[in-house]
Structure formats: structure tokens, C-alpha cells
Amino acid sequence: MKTDTRAVRIPGGPGPESFQAFFEALDAPAALCDPMLRLVAVNEAFHRFCADHQATVEDVARALAVAAVPVDGSSCDMELPLAGKPGAVLTMSRRGDVVAVRARNDPELARSRLVMAERALLEQARTEGVLLDLGRSVAEVGGEEELVAAVARGVKELFPGRSFCIRITDSRTGGLTSLYAEGRMKEGAHEPLVLLQRAVEKLNLGRSTLPTTGRVTVLSEVPLLFLGSTHGVSAPLVASGQLFGAINMEYPEGLDADIQHDERVLLQLASQVAVAVKNAKLIDELTFVRKYLEDLLEKANALILVANREQQVVVFNQALSALTGFRKEDVLGKDLFWLVPENEHLRLSQVIAAALRGESVNSFETRLLSRDGNEVRVSFATSSRLAHHGEVDGVIAIGQDITVVKELEKRIIHAEKLASIGQLAASVVHEINNPMTAVATYADALLQRSRTTPGANPADQEKLRKILESSHRILRFTRDLVSYARPAQDRPERVQLNAVVDMAVGFCEHVVAQACVSVHREYTELPPLSAVRANLVQVFVNLITNACHAMQPGGAVFLTTRREGQEAVVSVRDSGTGIDPKHLQRIFEPFFTTKPEGKGTGLGLSICQGIVENHGGRLTVTSTVGAGTTFSVRLPLSVD
């Protein structure tokens, strides 16, 4: 039997006023609505319910305005989204044009809401912790590669199970400088860089600031980069109005995630990363500029030396190392005065004091010590080294090696002295020739008369003959000396090589006698060759002189001439101590000499080599320590 649940009006019962009083006296929160769920009446308990949940009746009315109207004769529940206590539920029952509303608290729903809120707070704390750790990591990285690796670790921790791609670009050209991908990317998906239109507008990234190379585009949707992805989010890396790349994150099929939440976190992450990328690129640029300037100073074709206020060397470039023989490691940190001789310290102190006062010195000539104990002459221009706050922090010296120049100046002065002596010698020779010619003439006349005079003393004739020979020898020597001293005309002539060597021996007789050595000659008949006689004589004079200087008394010089094919070969061999192998390869360098100070110029062999090569020949040397040295002059023979 079915029970009729419709309300029945009892005849003679209470009137509407009684029902109103009953409605208001109910302890349960209750309200009445019209069919459009507009509140018509609420009791006092309903007001208290709203107050307990930190809401108003108007808040409830707004919630009901968007709720679904129940069907006539049915009931339904709706969760009341109030900012106060969670778990508020409204039960709506419709009967005709009246909807009765009863408010209640649902403990299970409240607990569920609390759990969800707790989880949200924990997730927020985890996210903030990861972002904080990431911020520390990117602040400590030393370059772009390390930065990308740190960001990749942060993205994997924040968004597990997602595919993602980190692209770092050049802010000027848009060219890709770094790429990291977690997942299988589509072919050619890494370029161009596609930015989301609304993200560009939100970040105020003007189109005029984007590269115009076609490597960056702006679209309303960002295409998916990874195989198997269903949807994705992206965030551009923007700092100071410049684009430095983008982070794309995509979701494989079946992954359940809050995309809106992920996008918010990704944008927050991107803002952190963009600043770090900008700083990393600035650091890379500064490192590059610094390295470039260091290489420029180190490899410059000039002597560069920098010292601080404590006069400690802080820059010592390759040119200085090559000049002095000291390695950079030997000099850096040492006192500047360690590099110069003691008698130069006072002058150097004055220059340093001027630099520390902000004054510069355009040309300061001094001497530097070298590893082998010798000194080199240098000329420096000095200026002050300024610190970042504008104070003088030290002195910078840039200069050049003037050792060769100074040596040349000395040689020029010496050559001028020799020229003066040569002019004086020519006058002396002229004064000698006149009386010696008379002596020779009279000695020859007396010798001829003695030979025709009967009973003449043979001893007197021998004396006259020796006087005549000596006179002719003096005349011949003075004539050759004037010929040798006269500037060469560089005009080749036909010469006999053996005669040239003999002339050189004649000029060296005094040196040979002073060294107490002997000269041995072994000549082979040679055809004449085309040469400048005086220049070849100079070559052999120098070689014979060097041989005499290399021997102790009792030594011997061996002069040999021979023919080898179309070459004439002259060998000058001594029985001296030989040449150290480390010096042998430098023997023909200008100003290089193994003789004591003041005993040699270091120019002789260099000049000899030049003369021989100008004649189309070669000058070579072989030496054995303790056994002697042999110089060989090879000259081409004239082709008839």
C-alpha cells in the first residue's frame, strides 16, 4: 500500500502565522527559495550558520544563483564554497514553487578539504624549496653549460614524468647556444624558437627587440616538440627586455597533471632562470674579454711589464721571457728591482715614483738582467695603472729591445774611429813610402856597385841584399794595406784564390806571431774565379784571426784549397779547444761571440757569411770540443 507523502491541510488547524513562527523557531538553519533559487526567507539559525562560516546570507545567495534547480518532488546537495570553515553543505528540496533549503556541516567533506589543503600546502612548500635550491645552484655556476645542467635537474624534480626541452639562445641573433632535452624530440624541432603570443604580451617583450634572423617566431599556439606528447606548456626566458631562450614542457599520453598549476610554476621558474642566463652570458663575455686581453698582452710584439704599488711584478709577457731567458713563473711576484742591475736602482726608483704620482715617462732606457748573466738594453714608456676606484694601483711599462741598436751605435762610432785611423794610416803609409823607396833605390845601387867592384866584402853585399828585401817587403805591405783599406767598389774581377789567401796571411803575420802559432799551407792549383778581391781578403783575415785567438801558444793553423766539382773550397782549420755545441748553431748570429768582453764584436762571422753568400757561395763550420774547428768557404768557379 503506497503512502501519500503530500502535505495535508487539517481543517481547523493553525494559520500561516503559526507556520512562520514554527519556521523561525527551528534550531536547524533553514531557508525558503522561489523556483529560481532566490532566497525568500531565512531563519535565525541560518544567520548563525553563515556567521560561523565567516560568510553572509548574500554570499549564500550568490552561491545559490549558479546552482542547479532540483526537480519538483526531489532533493539534492551542494557544497557551499565559503572562505571560512570547510564542509558546509546545503540540502535543497522542491515542492511545487517552493524550495526548502537546510544547511548542515559534513565532517567527512571537511576532512577531505583539509587533506586537500594540506597536500596543496606541502606541494607549494616542495615547489618553493626546489626553486630556492635551484636559485642557489644557478647563482654558483661558472658558465652556461653548468647552468643548463642545474636547470635540467630542477625541472626534473619539479615536474617528474614530463618531457622537457631547455634552449638557450643569443639575445642578438637568436642563434642556439645550448640545448638540453629530456625525451625524444621530433626531427628538426629544436629550431626555430616558437613563443606563445599571450606570454610575449604578458612579459612586455616587444617584437622590435626580437631577432630578425627568422630563428624566433611568435604564434598563438606552440607546436609540440616531442614524440608521443598530447599537450604542453612553454615559458620564454626574458630578462631586462631581452630574450635568452625558452623552456618547453610536454605531457605524454596518460599522465594526469594540473596543467594550469604547472604553467604557473614553469613561468616562475623561467623568470629565475632568465636572470641567471643573462648573468652567465655576461660572465662568459667578461671571461672572453679578459682572456683576449691577457693573450694580447702575453703575445704582443712588444716588451710589456706591469708592477703593483708594492713593486711586485704582476705581468711579464712572452717577449720579455724570450729576451731575458726567464720564465714567467720565475718572475711573477718578485720585486721589480730584481730584474735590473744594482747601479740602475736609483734611476728606476725615480721612474716608479713618477708613475705612482700619475706621471708618465715616454722614453726610459735601462738594462735588464738575463738568465745567462748578461745584460740587455731596453727602452720603456711608462704610465700609471689605475684601479677600478680611480686610484693609482701600479705602473705599466711597454718597450722594446734596443740592444742591437746600441751595439750598432757602438759599431758606427768604432767604424768612424777606424775611418779616421785609416785616413791617418794612409798619410803615414805615404810618408813611409817616400823614404823607403829611396832606401830601396840606394840599397839596390850600392849592391850593384859592390858586385862590380873587385875585392868587395861579401858580408857587405849580404847586408845590402837584406836591406833591399826588407825595403821591398815594407813597400809591398803598405801597398796592399792601402788597397785593402780602400772602400770596395763591389765590382768583381778575375782573381786567383790562392793569392787572395796568401795576402790574408800576410796581413795576419803580426797576429800569428803574437799568438805563437804556426801556419801550414796546402794549396791545389785552381782556375781563376770572379770575385771582389778586398771582400774575400776580409773573409780570410777574419777566419785566420779567429783561429789564432782560439789556440794556445804552439798551435797550428792549416790552410787548404781544393776543387770539388764546380766549386773551389778553402778550409781554415785550427787545433784549438773547439766550440761548444750549444753555441755552434748561433755562431753566425750578429753580435754573438764567445770571446771575453772587449775581445770581440760578434760581427765578424756574420759579415763573412754575408760576403760569401753575395759571391754565390756558402760558409760552413764543423767543430769538436778539444780537437779544433774547421771553417769551409765554398765559392763557385767561373764557367769558361
Automatic annotation (TrEMBL):
Gene Ontology terms: biological process: regulation of DNA-templated transcription
Stretches assigned to the PAS domain: 289-359
UniProt GO molecular function: ATP binding; phosphorelay sensor kinase activity
Keywords, ordered alphabetically: ATP-binding, Kinase, Nucleotide-binding, Phosphoprotein, Transferase, Two-component regulatory system
InterPro entries per the UniProt record, alphabetical: GAF-like_dom_sf (IPR029016), HATPase_C_sf (IPR036890), HATPase_dom (IPR003594), His_kinase_dom (IPR005467), HisK_dim/P_dom (IPR003661), HisK_dim/P_sf (IPR036097), PAS (IPR000014), PAS-assoc_C (IPR000700)
EC category name: transferase
Domain of life, per lineage: Bacteria
PAC domain ranges (all copies): 362-414
Family matches, as PANTHER family: PEROXIDE STRESS-ACTIVATED HISTIDINE KINASE MAK3, SENSOR HISTIDINE KINASE
Protein name: histidine kinase
Species for this entry: Myxococcus llanfairpwllgwyngyllgogerychwyrndrobwllllantysiliogogogochensis
